[in-house]
């Protein structure tokens, strides 16, 4: 156990089992803000009543870094006391009006939680516990109140005044000031409160929904960025129409507003009717944004809008239920993006991309010191639990529900959920119960208590499968065994409910009909097996020869599948499987197998990939029936992080060397094909961010990267020269950045010229310069050059560690996304990491805690990395002034 220094308090854990309802309810909140960067005055008038179902007690209001000036109860002075950060008031009547007057200093709020100033504009971020930095309050999600908000400010400096709900009044005040009064017609928890005040301009659009009601949509940005808001507006319109069509959920406000800021800890925030976004997920035009940016904007705009119901109208009872809104809403934004795809191939590409995020980020979290269930049992700092487990794994749990009840059945369940719980703060159990109750004849309803282990048990289940063929009986039997490794606080796991989508292929690739033993007829293509026991088997009849099983089609459950496929079987799946996910997965398994064998070999890697794999990749590139986006995914090798997770002991430099050797081999062996691919796909015509065009750009960009890499091996200058010209002539950011990335990743001398030109062109575009920083910090390490480069970048005039986007573009790109450069034998990367965590913790603990997660998996490292990494973590943990955000992360890491 880590020994804390004198004076360093051990933060107390908050436990789900200790939940009790609040002693008081707040019915109405009337807030008046006199906005000033150095001293904002907040008058808070609330109507409270005692909760008759609670255990009673005094009123305890949360506060943080506030200056308290006045407390009145029913208009009279009240006695109160301070206990730590809480304002405590005793001897209160059962119902009363409370008035609290406080001041705060938004301009010095570098934590970007509560009320803060960014580029002379006021913003708020209240989730999870930021409202207490604005006024004293019952800052918990189960306290839902009606809000009236009056904003007053200097009109010349802050001409736009926004808050939640509907604008009911506005006007002039003496001395050049003005006011705006907003009323939110829906009760909400304090974490959904928002205000914005500043010099902003808006793109506006009026729409009429299917219900026949007209709404005003507004996207607010700084002057000069208005031309970059069209895609965000279109994404918002599509989101509104989709939610009304798919789930019958209409927009419920007269207006819906999005505001963009460059200083933001998160991607975006779903404050009721006034969503505040990181500029990264709003601003886009073809000159400044890549196809990936366009896709992310569509997804995040959709996500935050869908929260209007799944999170706002129905919210969380407590923060342990965070996945109730986040997991469900990630699922909804994934479905939205897939439903917007024009064809099945594009839908499959989206699914593969989502699973790749899950397996490269969430699976390691499940196996590390911060492992926690989708519904955690305890936390010290809730901000640390905005994780891929809560979001992405939570979405997979919801997806399994849909698999078990069907698409229509899930829609019926959603309708029942909102009918039952509109306006309430509820739990994950309430959601699962509604889906099951709407589908009483479903497997989910029958297995609901067991299915909910997905919420309570941490870790990634492993599903071991074996197949045996009986030629005489013409049967094929699949045997499954499920297990789940111990995680912190959970040494033993009970069996999960695991839906397994299955198909069988003949050796020649034909899809076989599926008929289980005892059934009267066969079904075609995929069917779902539901596993509930530690071991189960399923026998299929009428099989003329040993088949190739296609298991876990569409990634039907978030598990690790262990099946001892032969290379021949994987090549059969890669060439023939009707399920695009498993076709992609077969290629990944072949590449991963080769990588692991080369890592284990005693000699330095050269030819890692065998001829059969190279030949299969050649066929993929040449196949005219496959979409370009799918080809690009198949040809993308498993990441260094994903390879590392398959090993018991990790030598990061060895992994990097092997993967680089694989890249070189693909580049040189398929040189002719890469030339053909580039010529076929580099001209996509007028720019549109649709999946087909984006896929063509992605594949041509990959071709450029491999062609430059091959040129570096042969000394050829033709393709680097063509790539530089492509960089100069590109008509959109995707093609330009692909060319720049190809030069940088190949280490060619022309990269310096291109980087300088890129900066000169886009020096006034903050989001583009983030890309410029990130590309360099994440570049392949050659001779240890990346760390000195990163230190140099931090001294660049455009770098500011206080801006989360800029900090992520340099520090996170190096420490968290560039393992080959970060894990240095001399430990200099770890020293840099510890310096940055300490530096950021004093400025913005949320960002620091995210960076601290970069060494979660230190205990898997080989020596000398392991000891050096631990020493760096100990150095951070020993700081006496460490925030509880970062303290929780490093202490859990050291306990691993």
TrEMBL record:
Belongs to which family?
Answer: Belongs to the peptidase M1 family.
Peptidase M1 alanyl aminopeptidase Ig-like fold domain location is: 459-563
| Protein's recorded name | Aminopeptidase N
Report the NCBIfam families cross-referenced here: pepN_proteo
Residues covered by the Peptidase M1 membrane alanine aminopeptidase domain: 232-447
Any one Gene Ontology BP term: proteolysis
User: Key word Nucleus present in the record?
Assistant: no
State the EC number(s).
Answer: 3.4.11.2
Q: Which UniProt keywords apply?
A: Aminopeptidase, Hydrolase, Metal-binding, Metalloprotease, Protease, Zinc
């Amino acid at each position: 156990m880590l020994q804390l220094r004198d004076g360093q308090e051990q933060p107390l854990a908050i436990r789900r089992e200790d939940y009790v309802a609040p002693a008081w309810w707040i019915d109405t909140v009337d807030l008046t803000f006199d906005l000033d960067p150095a001293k904002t005055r907040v008058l808070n008038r609330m109507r409270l009543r005692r909760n008759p179902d609670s255990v009673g007690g005094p009123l305890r209001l949360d506060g943080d870094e506030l200056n308290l000036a006045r407390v009145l109860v029913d208009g009279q002075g009240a006695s109160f006391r301070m206990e730590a950060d809480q304002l405590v008031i005793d001897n209160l009547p059962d119902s009363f009006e409370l008035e609290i007057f406080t001041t705060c200093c938004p301009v010095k709020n570098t934590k970007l939680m509560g009320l803060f100033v960014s580029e002379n504009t006021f913003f708020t971020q209240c989730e999870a516990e930021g409202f207490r930095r604005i006024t004293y309050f019952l800052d918990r999600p189960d306290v839902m109140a009606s809000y009236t908000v009056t904003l007053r400010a200097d009109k010349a400096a802050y001409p736009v005044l926004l808050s939640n709900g509907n604008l009911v009044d506005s006007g002039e005040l003496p001395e050049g000031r003005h006011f705006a009064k907003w009323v939110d017609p829906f009760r909400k928890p304090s974490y959904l409160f928002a205000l914005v005040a500043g010099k902003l301009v808006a793109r506006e659009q009026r729409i009429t929904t299917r219900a026949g009601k007209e709404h005003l949509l507004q996207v607010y940005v700084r002057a000069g960025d208005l031309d970059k808001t069209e895609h965000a507006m279109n994404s918002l319109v599509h989101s509104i129409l989709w939610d009304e069509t798919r789930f019958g959920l209409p927009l419920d406000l007269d207006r819906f507003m999005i505001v963009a800021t460059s200083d933001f800890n998160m991607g975006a925030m779903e404050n009721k009717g006034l969503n505040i976004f990181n500029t990264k997920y709003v601003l886009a035009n073809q000159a400044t944004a890549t196809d990936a940016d366009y896709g992310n904007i569509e997804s995040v705009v959709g996500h935050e809008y869908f929260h209007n119901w799944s999170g706002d109208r129905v919210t969380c009872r407590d923060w342990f239920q965070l996945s109730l809104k986040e997991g469900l809403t990630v699922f909804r934004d994934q479905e939205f993006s897939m439903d917007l795809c024009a064809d099945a191939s594009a839908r499959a590409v989206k699914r593969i991309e989502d699973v790749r995020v899950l397996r490269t980020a969430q699976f390691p979290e499940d196996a590390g010191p911060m492992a926690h269930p989708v519904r955690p049992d305890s936390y010290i700092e809730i901000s640390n639990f905005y994780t891929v487990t809560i979001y992405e794994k939570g979405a997979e749990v919801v997806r399994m529900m849909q698999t078990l009840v069907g698409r229509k059945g899930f829609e019926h369940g959603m309708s029942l959920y909102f009918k039952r719980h509109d306006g309430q703060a509820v739990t994950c159990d309430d959601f699962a119960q509604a889906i099951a109750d709407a589908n009483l004849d479903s497997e989910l309803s029958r297995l609901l208590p067991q299915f909910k282990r997905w919420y309570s048990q941490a870790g990634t289940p492993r599903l071991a499968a074996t197949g045996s063929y009986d030629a005489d009986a013409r049967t094929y039997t699949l045997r499954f065994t499920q297990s789940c490794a111990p995680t912190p606080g959970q040494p033993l796991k009970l069996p999960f409910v695991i839906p397994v989508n299955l198909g069988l292929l003949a050796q020649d690739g034909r899809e076989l009909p599926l008929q289980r033993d005892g059934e009267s007829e066969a079904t075609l293509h995929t069917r779902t097996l539901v596993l509930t026991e530690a071991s189960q088997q399923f026998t299929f009849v009428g099989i003329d020869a040993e088949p190739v099983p296609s298991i876990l089609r569409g990634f039907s459950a978030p598990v690790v599948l262990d099946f001892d496929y032969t290379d021949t079987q994987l090549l059969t799946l890669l060439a023939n499987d009707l399920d695009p996910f498993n076709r992609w997965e077969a290629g990944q398994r072949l590449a991963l197998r080769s990588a692991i064998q080369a890592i284990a070999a005693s000699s330095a890697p050269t030819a890692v990939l065998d001829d059969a794999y190279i030949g299969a990749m050649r066929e993929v590139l040449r196949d005219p029936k496959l979409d370009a986006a799918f080809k690009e995914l198949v040809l993308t090798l498993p990441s260094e992080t994903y390879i590392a997770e398959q090993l018991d002991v990790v030598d990061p430099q060895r992994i990097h060397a092997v993967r680089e050797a694989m890249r070189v081999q693909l580049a040189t062996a398929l040189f002719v094909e890469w030339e053909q691919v580039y010529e076929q796909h580099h001209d996509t015509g007028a720019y549109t961010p649709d999946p087909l065009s984006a896929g063509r750009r992605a594949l041509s960009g990959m071709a450029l990267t491999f062609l430059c890499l091959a040129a570096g091996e042969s000394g050829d200058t033709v393709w680097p020269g063509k790539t530089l010209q492509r960089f100069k002539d590109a008509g959109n950011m995707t093609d330009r950045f692909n060319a720049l990335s190809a030069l940088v990743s190949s280490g060619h001398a022309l990269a310096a010229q291109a980087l300088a030109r890129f900066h000169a062109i886009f020096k006034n575009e903050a989001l583009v310069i983030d890309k410029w920083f990130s590309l360099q910090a994440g570049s392949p390490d050659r001779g240890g050059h990346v760390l000195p480069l990163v230190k140099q970048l931090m001294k660049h005039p455009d770098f500011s560690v206080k801006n989360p986007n800029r900090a992520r573009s340099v520090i996170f790109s190096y420490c968290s996304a560039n393992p080959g450069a970060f894990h240095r034998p001399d430990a200099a990367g770890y020293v840099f990491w510890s310096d940055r965590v300490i530096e950021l913790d004093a400025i913005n603990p949320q960002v620091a805690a995210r960076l601290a997660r970069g060494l979660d998996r230190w205990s898997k490292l080989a020596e000398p990395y392991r000891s050096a990494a631990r020493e760096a973590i100990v150095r951070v943990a020993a700081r006496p002034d460490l925030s509880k955000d970062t303290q929780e992360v490093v202490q859990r890491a050291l306990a691993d």
